[in-house]
Amino acid sequence: MTSREAQLDAMLRHLGAAYYESLHGRASAADVARARAAIEESMAEQPAARPGPGKKQAGTPPAEAHHHGRWHSTVRDVMTTNVVTVDRITSYKEIAQLFAKHKISAVPVLIMGRHVAGVVSEADLLAAQDEAAREARNKTTGLLRTRRRAAQHPKRTAEELMTKPAITIHPDAPIPRAAAVMHNHHVKRLPVVDPEGKLIGIVSRRDLLSVFLRPDAQIEAEVRELLTEILFADLANVRVAVHGGVVTLLGQPGEQDHHDLIPVAVRLIWDIDGVVDVVDKLGAGAAPASDATSAA
């Protein structure tokens, strides 16, 4: 992992922690917004790399995708489908070479076609090295040199190295469920499998957090669409401002009969991907242009 990747990974963990704390009242929406803004600023400093053929760029939802809220977003929406894999007889050295070549830190081990038997991670490789080194130290002096050479290039296969059984997730599982599985099992990524157990993708912590990095313009467009559907409102009298994921609603939504639907609309806005807070001023009167500008 490069220094930039390590920095971004740390920032993403900070964002996830800030959001988790906010759900439990131990952090404010401003804390989440600041963490989100820091990541956006860091990502803007370097152009995004083009995804390879057949690979979905992690953290980038397709332009045509329609989001239905973070509690309804699924693993399928954010997973990477072009997965580097190995079989049970792949050697230690080959796995290490794959990690270096593809800049990854784990690979699923497949059996019977595409069924996931386990996962080999960098931690598994390091543990094997440590075990071989300990064995070498326990041998007699005459055999020490030979054992050390074996420790440098362990003759082991993926079947021996892998962590099993594999912790997997279904593509239609909601994103919070995937996050809970990662947390409970202390893993950074999950193979995504179909009902028959066949591999169809992989999802990482960074992929799950990508829903909080949506551009404000996308969030605003979805908020406007939702308000139109729920309130049957003339949005000429409603102003929507989004900054750092914080949605501010200003103005009169329309007929008085529809005002009782405002709390429903606000709750649904909370479920839109990327929203970290909602400031509801609907029904408080028409908002002057200066208010909307300052809110932005």
The strand order across the widest sheet is 1-2-3
* Average pLDDT, all residues: 75
Structural class based on helices, strands and sheet pairing: alpha/beta
Pick out the low-confidence regions: 47-71, 286-296
Number of extended strands: 8
**Hey, roughly how much beta strand do the residues contain?**
5-15%
Radius of gyration: 24 Å
- Binned, the helix content reads 40-55%
The termini sit apart by 37 Å
Write the H/E string, N to C. Answer: HHHEHEEHHHHEEHHEEHEH
Structure explained in plain terms:
The protein is of the alpha/beta class and 296 residues long. It is built from twelve helices and eight strands. The protein has helices spanning 3-23, 29-44, 75-78, 92-102, 122-138, 141-152, 158-161, 175-185, 205-209, 216-231, 262-270, 289-295, and strands at residues 86-87, 106-111, 115-121, 189-193, 199-204, 238-243, 246-251, 277-282. The model is unreliable at 47-71 and 286-296 (pLDDT under 50). Helix 1 (3-23) runs antiparallel to helix 2 (29-44), helix 5 packs antiparallel against helix 6 (141-152) and helix 10 (216-231) runs antiparallel to helix 11 (262-270). Strands 1-2-3 form a three-stranded mixed β-sheet. The chain has a three-stranded mixed β-sheet with strand order 6-7-8, sandwiched between helices. A two-stranded antiparallel sheet has the order 4-5.
